[in-house]
Specification:
443 residues; sialyltransferase cstii, chain A; Rossmann fold; disordered C terminus; elongated; 2 domains; alpha/beta; 5-stranded parallel β-sheet
Length: 443
Amino acid sequence: MKKTKVILVGKGYGFWESDKIPEVPDDTEIWGINDLILKKIDVDLVFNMHLLEEFTNVDMAGVDLANSIGIPTIMPKKYKQITNSIEFPLKKLMKEYGTDYFMTGIAYMFAYAIYKGMTQIDCYGINMRGDDEKYKNARACVEYWIGYARGKGIEVNMKGRYCDCLKIFDRKLYGYKDVFQTDPYDITDRSLYVTFGTGLDRMGLSKLTYLLSLQEDSLYYIDANPVPLDILQRREFLYDHLTRLVNHTWKDSKTNPDKLPKYTGDMCHQYMHIVENIYGSEHTARIICIEGDEVEVKKDWLEFSGDKILWTDPKHESWKEEDKHELHAFFPSYESVKDKAFDRYYKEYYQIAKRCRYKYPLYFKYIKSEVLDTEAGQKEILDHIGYENHVYTDYKEFYKLNKVPSNGNAPKEEVCQKKKQNPKKKSQVSDSTEKSITTNMAI
């Protein structure tokens, strides 16, 4: 049977989603980039558009493996020592397509797929994500070839929610105030829905974690990996953090260790400081910001921090190198006494939240803590994340675990009853989540 469809697999974050292809149809090939074959991805063709003299050890290992098992490798030229190497028909394709716009190996894969007469191109792990000029230019090149293929009538599907191709970064259509870009990727393809909870109401974040952990197929954390602000605000941090979160989720999955839960996330006040980074890198994540009673929140934080130097060390003079992960390193600082410094921090913090609410209306939700105590409020939160079946709570078990008295701030029994609609399977609650919840509140 003639192969008319191709799956292109890169090494970008999320390329494992190619494992979820149940069966590759007889009319479909899989092509992999560079040393991807070493990841135990079965491919029919390898693309390595590096000159042999520029190969790294990993490049050579990938080509040697492909050569040893008879898989052809497309290269800039035919090499005698690589018997299965095939020269990329550069001159022929430049003439046929009228362009020499090739800035990345992925561009060559697209051009070759068009040349081979493929009618459908599905891409996994081809994210083209990065802030430096190299990645920005490479992404533009790939987007050019996506458009070229579609102009030829070829169906192109960019799989995976980590892909930056064809994405409007603020989601707003130019010239329109309230029209936003729909997700350019098939959201049913998403292997994991990520939610970040943030806000200065520590009790509110703990209650949010408890609520979400009750839902089916879910695994949530509090402070999965808190880091100092100077590290947190580096663009590359978020990618590494998400990788650790996914790996952590994978290891903590109890009911089926071979399958990721569908929903995961982390709750920490710090995420407010990197909202722009999140939507520049992880644009489909949901963020829920909780605002509690300012007086109560301030009282709680001042009691919690005790005599620690928080919010009052603008020159970081108290930060010794070995103390970089101490509590004071997680907050901005001001030239003021602690009481007034916290007031300023609180004000600036929620000013950011209010801006984000208007800038990212599809993904950023700003709520008052009392919303957590009503069924309507819980439904709004769960709908925002994307849950189809809801489990509501009156927090009785939460208060019992945390030894919190059911006072005026606790939900009323008749307002919010725990119930489940069409349950499919028991939710997953990680040991670390249980520990975080039962040890009271996040930092």
